[in-house]
Amino acid sequence: MQKIGVFVCWCGSNIAATVDVKAVANAMRSEPGVVYSTDYQYMCSENGQNLIKDAIRDYKLDGVVVCSCSPRMHEATFRKTALSAGLNPYMVEIANIREQCSWIHKDMEEGTQKAMVLARAAIAKVKKNAPLTAGTTPVTKRALVIGGGIAGIQTALDVADAGYEVDIVEKSPTIGGRMAQLDKTFPTLDCSACILTPKMVEANQHENIHLITYAELENVSGFVGNFTARIKKKARYVDETKCTGCGICTEKCPSRKGLNAFNMGLNTRGAVYIPFAQAIPNVAVIDTENCLHFKTGKCGICQKNCSAGAINFEQKEEILERKYGAIIVATGFRPIDASAFDEYAYTQSKDVVTSLELERLMNAAGPTGGVLLRPSDGEHPKEIVFIQCVGSRCSKDAAKGKEYCSKICCMYTAKHAMLIREKYPDTNVHVFYIDVRTPGKNFDEFYRRAAEQYGVDYIKGMVGKVSVEGKKLHVQGSDLISNEQVHIDADLVVLATAIEPDPTARSIGTMLTASMDTNDFFTEAHPKLRPVESPTAGIFLSGVCQGPKDIPETVAQAGAAASKVIGLLSKKELVGNPCVAHANELLCNGCSQCEKVCPYGAITYEDKEVRGPEFRGTKRIAVVNEAICQGCGACTVTCPSTAMDLKGFSNNQIMEEVDAICR
Amino acid sequence: MSDKITKEEILRICNVQPKKCMKCGKCSGTCPAYDEMDYHPHQFVYMVEHGQIEKLMASQSIYKCLSCFACLERCPRNVEPAKLIEAVRLAVIRQQGKNHMTENDVPALLDEELPQQAIVSSMRKYKK
Amino acid sequence: MPMNQEWKPKIVAFCCNWCSYAGADLAGSSRLSYPADVKIIRIPCSCRLNPLFILRAFQRGADGVILCGCHPGDCHYSTGNYYARRRMTALFGMLSYLGIDSRRTRVEWVSAAEGAKFAETMNDFAKTIYALGENVKLEDLRCKEN
């Protein structure tokens, strides 16, 4: 026979004004199983809690019902009270007689009757409660950052500064990412490399940060606090420990066919190359597709010239297996392929470039040494047309393009236009736009400056067609304000192409069971309140992988993600929510229905020896990982054999509540 | 026959949703017959949306449209202005109840550069 | 019928912990009243609502059952309310076949900020149930109470 104690709170007059608390306490005394029932002015006060503690000890209570305010308010309080008196905290149930009773009913009789029903329902439920213990799991004090752009670097630095080990996995041979390719940054026009490279160096020199470049994530298993990642370190054919980054091999290499990806393919590089002068690690890498040694087996000039003896044609790829407590996704973006928009003649003329290509054309370390020259003939362009929203803001049913606004294009186009007008005042710059979107600190001022001070010609309307006419590009667009079709013979056309998540993001999302939207951006746990966390516990989001962002926003988000990671890694162990799903192995037949509805991938199946009255032997049954399960209960309803149940909200408990209310 | 053609009627004919338009002007920016028209493709979308059908029906623009479908092809939001223009044209023809030109007149107007689509369209345009 | 014997319906409201239960609390702290016949059962998510619970309620004499969850797209567990919506659609069709008036069951999305909507919903639902009068009791033939 169970011993239940009922504690009715007055909450001053909040409850007592419309509920006859004494009558409720008296009525509950005669409920089966109730051995003690009382009322008190403030149950949550020190005295009130002592009342509960004493009753638990004196009457050896094995269940407590507190009739008070919402469990969202004080459930945790009363659970702690029970725990300190030696009762399992999950043997406490709250009857919400304030928010859902006394505060909404004006009639004393009505309120009292309802409070009694709610108390009975809570008693009925607590009788079916079982003591629950939250599982704990240890936390591996190491974080993995996927992607070595500014987002990944910043997160890694912040986490490492807090004293935790961080690995950065970067797929290309150097960290730095997209920001390293930029010339200037808006709206301050400071040089991108000047502010990024010190951070890259800092990341490289930080004792807690380990760079794993030219490497890809192969597989991730485990759960929050206990991930295991397999990382494939591709063969560079250059010994990282020996290479000094002197660059002699890159000069001597006779192959000149490889497109320089860092310069957006605007020029070529040797088959052995260092991506750019400030690359970190400053180590060469061999591109086997263009290397004569790998193609013909002959060459080997680089090896002969390397005084450090770092070239190693025999190098093999390596697989690293590491354990992590948290994983930060910072996979970044790329511009979409502009060749889909052939009306802009991107594939027909070298002088139609994307904005990122223009960054390289204007960068002092770029293929033209920072002098703006047409890629086709190396002449100074005198008439430049910028086209905004190329591939952004297209409807779902349009043949091509992305639905979202890429956010950064309006500002970088203003930046480009301004820089060109400043450097080459004799150049005419036209910007075709649909809307100019500049929400950001000093952003609109920046755009107005481009238009007003630098005389950039902003034209409201889109370009419909660009055609190659001799050395010129004939641009035909509309000016919606003057309601005219505009024709410009341009020397250079710049496309503000939409940005899209890096193509590796999808497979990484699958590996991490982190959800993504239809555009392959990672979704956040809550769009407002948890913007840097994935719904999958232990996975954090940093930078453009979550949605288009500029650099300050990326850095802010990177820092926010780091603080969440630090919060997680600083825990000794993770205390789970004990109200998780659990499969009754006698009933489970391993049908896999529950796995399909689980939003967290918490359910797996294993063959298990089962000894029951009806079945003996080995069968496939569902196993819930309690560290991953969040306790939503989707699986419990979908289970055709009622094997799956939710602790704390079990079928029996809810049925008893239903019965008590309908009695 | 003298019924006023409504916006709904036009939209029913062509099944276009002018509300999708974000007023970027790419349709008019791409239109090869732009200079011939008094109302341009983006204005068609706007005017149909605002129920100004009669003005469009009275306009010569509906005959100037080449039905090259460039606007439809390049619209980032798949609004399909060409279909809208076609619908207004159809509405006019249905009201007139007479042929604008006979089939026999067509061959004389053809030249080698004329796209196939335009020939088909001309049949639709000028035949009852 | 004497006044004090006036018929009162039994209305069971299942509310998800994250949105609707909080919405109900907000209705309370905003002092927005709704009939005392509505009794709330807290469940972690609308997808925890097993159709069996509703059948049970109708077996035990409930006159109306309402499920409240987060708005589509806002589920704390991402997708729970979508499952709930489908399950309830399937169940409600069957209930009317069993002779339970379809107006006695309802699904509403109430966010944690919609205290007023919660109260309105409950008032409206209770009004509907009052108008329908007493419900038939579902019988479970497998375990008939003697």
Structure described in brief:
The complex is a heterotrimer of chains A (663), B (128) and C (146). By secondary structure, chain A is α/β, with parallel strands linked by helices.
Provide a descriptive summary of the structure in words.
The complex is a heterotrimer of chains A (about 675), B (about 130) and C (about 150). Chain A is α/β, with parallel strands linked by helices and about 675 residues long. Chain A has 5 domains: about 5-125, Rossmann fold (3-Layer(aba) Sandwich); about 140-235 and about 315-330 and about 505-570, FAD/NAD(P)-binding domain; about 250-305, no CATH class; about 335-500, FAD/NAD(P)-binding domain; about 580-645, Alpha-Beta Plaits (2-Layer Sandwich). Chain A is about 30% helix and about 25% strand. The two termini of chain A are about 20 Å apart. In chain B, about 55% of the residues lie in helices and about 0% in strands. In chain B, helix 1 crosses helix 7 (about 80-95) and helix 3 (about 40-50) packs across helix 7 (about 80-95). Chain C has about 150 residues and is an alpha/beta fold. Chain C has a single domain (about 5-135), classed as Rossmann fold (3-Layer(aba) Sandwich). Chain C has a 4-stranded parallel β-sheet with strand order 2-1-3-4, sandwiched between helices. In chain C, helix 1 (about 20-30) crosses helix 4 (about 115-130). Chain C is globular. The model of chain C has no long low-confidence stretch (mean pLDDT about 90). Chains in contact: A-B, A-C. The interface between A and C is large, with 44 and 42 residues.
